[in-house]
Amino acid sequence: MNPITRRRFLKITGTSLGAAAAAKTLSVLPGTAHALEKAAAPSGVQVIPTFCDVCFWKCGALAYVRDGKLWKVEGNPEDPLSRGRLCPRGTGGIGAHYDPDRLTSPLLRRSSRGKEEWVEVTWDEALDYIAERMQAIKAKYGPESVALFTHGIGGNFLRHAVRAYGSPNIAAPSFAQCRGPRDVGFRLTFGEDVGSPERTDIANARCIVLIGSHLGENMHNTQVQEFSEAMAAGASLIVVDPRLSVAAGKAKWYLPIKPGTDMALLLAWMNVLLRENLYDREYVAAHGFGFEQFAAGIVDFTPEWAYPETGIPPEVIRETAREMARYRPATLVHPGRHVTWYGDDAQRSRAIALLNALLGSWGRKGGFYYPQSMDVPAYPYPPYPKSEKGKVDNPNNKYPFADETLTTGIREATISGKPYPVKGWLVYATNLIHALPNEAETICALQELDLLAVVDVIPSEIAGWADVVLPESIYLERYDDLNVEWFRQPFIALRQPVVNSPHNQKPNWWIARKLADKLGLGEYFPWKDIEEYLQYRLDKAGYSFDELKRKGIIRGEKQPIYFDEGVPAEFATPSGKIEFYSLQLAQAGFDPVPQYARPAEPPPGYFRLLYGRAPVHSFSRTQSNRLLMDMLPENDVWVNADVAARRGLKSGDYVRLKNQDGVLSNRIRVKATQRIRPDCVYMVHGFGHTAKGLRFARDKGASDAQLLTRYQTDPLMGGTGMNVNFVTFELEA
Predict the structure, then answer these.
(1) Tell me, which fold does domain 200-369+567-575 have in CATH?
(2) CA 625, CA 307: separation in Å to the nearest integer?
(3) pTM for the full predicted model
(4) Of 476, 482, 479, whose CA–CA distance to 457 is shortest?
(5) For the purposes of burial, counting CB atoms within 10 Å of the CB of 322, is it exposed (0-12), middle (13-18) or buried (19 or more)?
(6) Where in the chain is the domain with CATH 2.40.40.20?
(7) pLDDT tens, residue by residue, 586-627
(8) CATH says 607-731 is which class?
């Protein structure tokens, strides 16, 4: 039995990762922490398949246990995502199990919120505390006044419990702070988004265009492997970035663009393709809608017009446009992942989608394939209660294309009490202090709450404000929901326990089920444990749970993934075609064809703050992992070498960064380099922790999140453009 379903609108739950909790190293009163009873450890080596959780990619892995102790983790050769290899974060995942700063027992706040002073309690005491306050909030304000912030597949059962409780206010930072503008821009154009993992056919691309996408630093495993193979096969690479990234070092064309002017370059590229008749005319004629209006809308955006905006010479713009056309339709203009930059991000992502459409790459080999999925029925739960108030995050549909819940919308409602009060936050696996822009607004919202409960594995800044902190088992110690992935070949993957939790940690499914019981919602968790739940779903789909436990993955049959293989060329847009001119945007009062707005200039003596990822860390959640920390214990600030010389700075010096609002960072080491433009600086995200419980990561490097006091909200979908902050240098004495 192997039914396959074609994807339409993919709803993903992932995006900006974080970590939050509190640890035994905080100010803990004598309490009741209990280590779990362990059976006698088996001798020899056991190999247990699972999938990774150090980032959202969910790579298939093989965990090795030697004499009862976790030894190492490798890629599962049977898994299409890892292909037998893990990134540095994945192989270092065992460090999360041995992390000396891990939470060990549930904690209750013993003094004022934010002081990080705790008393250890039992699980019953902690869950009773949460349930009593949730019931009190429900009685006074309604169930909608409790919100859940969550990230990743591990939050599935808590989502289910909160929906059963009666609240629709469930949000992930991965939408408004990461991928949301991209998904909206592509959906407005093609009727579908690019998904997660993205449907990019990098392996077969003959020309790859990266616009601020740092493959090799932003370590999305499958994409990096395919990128390496494409480059080895002679693919042409065009990189647009203010910084000479690892990928840019391999480019045929490197365009050091002025930050904030990407839209100008995209419009100029499309102008060249039209003026020189280099676009895929047959593809556009067959699948396009509103092409004449689109062409008229970009007629003035010539390379000469774009030159003073971008700093890219007109002939370079023309030659790179011709390079893309030379290899179409196997030219892939990568959609990116973290795309919340300047506030016009949905329109910029739509321009990237339109450029791909001109090149004929959607649904074509070397461009964007159509992913497939296995058909695994959901568990038959009772219907959720119908919300009387609706969601709180987007009143009056202010952001008409926000098709997921806005984290910052919930935060705003918590502060203002409008359209109704939000009095409880449940936070799972996301460090909101680092994930959301403007830390002061987040702290202001926290002060309005009657309940803040955090579930995670390590202490971090958001946990310091919590009323109760629940220690979760890490991914190598627990089952999670099935990963029924959308990919070029469909598959089902299983995360299962490899070793026991070392102390009194519990898996998320157990936490959600116990909390639901205490809330009187036991009917929504009728299975006795997670294995019974998984067994039911797999039995209904006709697959073997025992086989999945043994192999870690069940593959489906390969199906057509390109138009020329038989995939129907259908587009879920109002016109039923690729919308070069967007009817939806026009009707909502927005530009139906993307336009350019010049970004703000920095104050004198300031530089635009840019930030990104490192291949050995995931956001702010891995800095306490001793294996990964040994590879990168702190971040640097990249400063143009000429600027550094004028300021009297050299590599290895320490400075503090001060932003336009006077916020001062922790000390950070200077990296003076010619690999970055003189009008900006760059740092890796996730460092500069201040939480007391992070003994090894605390005060290592600086936090870019602390400096992001301003953001520009995307008018289409509510995303927060955060590359709108500027910094200068304060020298260390």
Answers:
(1) Dimethylsulfoxide Reductase; domain 2 (3.40.228)
(2) 45
(3) 0.94
(4) 476
(5) middle
(6) 607-731
(7) 999 999 999 999 999 999 999 999 999 999 999 899 999 999
(8) mainly beta
